[in-house]
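Sat 14:20. Reprocessing the chain from the morning session after the first attempt stalled halfway. Input below, unchanged.
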Amino acid sequence: MTSSHRGRLARPTLTFTGLGAAALATGAVLYLLARAPGASGLPGGLGLDPWPALTGSLPSLLHTLAFALLAAAALGPTPRVVLACATCWTALGAAFEALQHPTVAHALLPLPEALDPTGALAGWVAPIARFAHLGTFDPGDLLATAIGGALAVWLGLRVLRGGVAS
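Finished this time. Tokens:
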């Protein structure tokens, strides 16, 4: 492998990592500034949100975008890897949002005990059930998650074609 070929392979990986880290950092700042204190699960929510209609679902978009790009960077970005990572993170985000729907969440709460009377699986099943029960379902988050996945594919393919400066 020539050094110029290695450089071409490294550039998309670095660009994916930078874009993913920027999306992740933006989402974290948004959580800290816009969410009510304690609502984000992160310390110090300030509740400063001048555009709640815009920023309410933005973290879902940013989360999907960031982790799809970071996963693609880690796996070695190719068009197939980009599509697979974006699809997986979109599906995962949508599944966690769907878990928060009241019908699903109420059905899940007694599930850990019913499925696992010995408590062997409680370490991972019970927290998911609690997350589902305490979360808030928002169809806007489902849409934002899908947009984040689509944006990851679009950006990823542009980077691979050399259309985004690194």
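The first helix runs from residue 3 to 34.
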